[in-house]
Amino acid sequence: MREIIYTEDQINEVALQLSQQVPSKALCFYGPMGAGKTTLIKALVKQLGGAGAANSPTFGIVNEYHTNNGELLAYHFDFYRLNDEIEALDLGIEDYFNSEAWLFMEWPEKIANILPSDGIRITIEVINSETRKLYFPSKS
Known about the structure:
alpha/beta
């Protein structure tokens, strides 16, 4: 298990390390409201070559990101507003999960029983108002 302590001004380096060291492209982000899940995902999209700025899909549930040449890069989910897993299934979540794109999932505990089997748990702990601790399994 990897552990990284960082501040927001180090977020791009953290995103680079994370993108290079996780054993899967399905990332499940756990942490309290305001921990920086969306901020880290924005940095990941940038590090992976995403075109334009990433933002939270809170009201739309899912955002789609592409590279500068238009190729699909990632899906970013925010399951916070879901009431149950049936709502995720109604969105066609299985089709998203079967794609080759990166999957960034906020509030994955809302759909715990239908998460991809290769989903990687990324936990963000708030140390103080400026510092976070990140835990994740890395490639062997």
